[in-house]
């Protein structure tokens, strides 16, 4: 049965129950979000398609948290406030807190939006991939701030000094890479850097994240004053479509090792960025040639909509020429080919896949290499 916790003003929690109450406000404070959509409802985690899920932000705007992975370690942590623990115990506590923070990041929103509205959009692979990747990247990089806001270093001294790695190997590296690339292309845009782009994306509804990436890319393109006013919206949409169509290749492959999935994720993010830049060049060519965007059914300009595609009669550029690291290119090739498990060779444990049924935003069983 669901348990409901009322909202209280921020205070330093001294028990698991107080932590659960305070975590929502801490997530809002750390991120600068307008509000959290958490309803106060807390339930036990569940299995989805046979997959154990350790954390879930439900479409009813509640939380599901796994007892063994999240709740029990945190209860143990508060049972011994101020005690010294070994690194393994502190890591267990830290991962439980990161899962709690991750799910609260899913429930952050900008003004006038709520988490439930995102449900139909999360059925799109490129929306889910960016949502899960951004959420994990932000929760992982800002976890120490979350810990500080809740005063947890007093409860578990040394918890901020324990090193860990992010989860969601198929999604998180791509989200991190995409924000870095957005930072690079938008150097001329005041107030925009990779860390700020990540924060801005984290507090947006999943349905709005790609629109924000598109707008950053568009603002840095130099096309705003070139494209006729009545065609700017369509031109911007074309840039966005090019990027998210490429990003839809972000996916989980249970047969591949975590390191291979991470490399592929970075490679797909690079392709998405390049697809956007290619579309920008195509639009520029159309406007400079005819003064208008090409009709939808008309082949547009000299550049293919596929990032880095070669003109007819020429060899396709290498992965390095496209700006994709060799390991990422090889990993992408393996994911597309459905290669044999790399873990059988390397001994690495593969992260289990995330349900793609439009289920609530969730965190799967966590295994790290």
Structure summary:
With 369 residues, this protein is of the alpha+beta class. 49% of the residues lie in helices and 7% in strands.
Short descriptors:
369 residues; alpha+beta; 2 domains; six-stranded mixed sheet; two-stranded antiparallel ribbon; 13 helices; 49% helix; 7% strand; elongated; disordered N terminus
Describe this structure in words.
The protein folds into two domains: 3-161, no CATH class; 172-348, no CATH class. The strands form two sheets. Strands 1, 3, 4, 5, 6 and 8 form a six-stranded mixed sheet that branches. It has a two-stranded antiparallel sheet with strand order 2-7. It is 49% helix and 7% strand. 46% of the residues are buried. It is elongated and about 70 Å long. With 369 residues, the chain is an alpha+beta fold. The longest helix is centred in the last third of the chain and has 33 residues, at 258-290. The chain has helices spanning 16-31, 67-79, 87-106, 125-141, 143-150, 152-155, 172-185, 194-202, 206-219, 232-247, 258-290, 326-337, 343-346, and strands spanning 3-4, 35-36, 41-44, 47-48, 51-57, 63-65, 108-109, 361-364. The model is unreliable at 1-9, 299-322 and 334-359 (pLDDT under 50). It starts with a strand and ends in a 5-residue tail after the last strand.
């Amino acid at each position: 049965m669901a348990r409901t916790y009322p909202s209280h003003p921020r205070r330093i929690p001294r028990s698991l129950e107080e932590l659960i109450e305070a975590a929502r406000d801490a997530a809002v404070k750390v991120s600068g979000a307008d509000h959290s959509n958490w309803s106060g409802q807390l339930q036990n985690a569940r299995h989805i398609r046979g997959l154990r899920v350790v954390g879930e932000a439900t479409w009813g705007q509640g939380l599901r948290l796994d007892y063994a992975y999240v709740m029990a370690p945190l209860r143990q942590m508060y049972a011994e406030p101020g005690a010294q623990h070994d690194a393994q115990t502190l890591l267990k506590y830290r991962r439980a807190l990161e899962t709690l923070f991750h799910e609260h990041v899913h429930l952050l929103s900008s003004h006038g939006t709520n988490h439930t509205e995102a449900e139909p959009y999360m059925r799109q692979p490129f929306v889910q991939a960016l949502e899960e990747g951004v959420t994990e990247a932000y929760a992982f990089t800002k976890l120490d701030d979350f810990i500080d806001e809740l005063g947890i270093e007093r409860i578990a001294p040394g918890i901020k000094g324990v090193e860990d790695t992010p989860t969601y190997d198929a999604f998180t590296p791509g989200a991190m890479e995409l924000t870095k690339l957005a930072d690079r292309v938008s150097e001329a845009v005041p107030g925009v850097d990779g860390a700020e782009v990540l924060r801005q994306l984290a507090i947006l509804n999943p349905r709005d994240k790609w629109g924000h990436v598109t707008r950053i890319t568009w603002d840095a393109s130099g096309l705003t004053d070139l494209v006729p006013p009545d065609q700017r919206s369509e031109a911007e949409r074309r840039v966005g479509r090019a990027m998210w169509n490429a990003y839809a290749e972000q996916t989980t492959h249970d047969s591949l090792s975590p390191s291979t999935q991470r490399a592929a994720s970075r490679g797909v993010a690079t392709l998405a960025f390049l697809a956007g830049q290619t579309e920008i060049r195509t639009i520029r060519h159309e406007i400079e040639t005819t003064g208008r965007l090409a009709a939808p059914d008309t082949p547009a300009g000299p550049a293919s909509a596929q990032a880095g595609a070669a003109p007819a009669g020429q060899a396709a550029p290498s992965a390095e020429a496209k700006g994709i690291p060799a390991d990422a290119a090889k990993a992408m090739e393996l994911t597309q080919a459905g290669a044999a498990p790399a873990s059988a060779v390397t001994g690495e444990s593969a992260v289990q896949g995330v349900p793609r049924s439009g289920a609530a935003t969730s965190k799967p069983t966590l295994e790290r290499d």
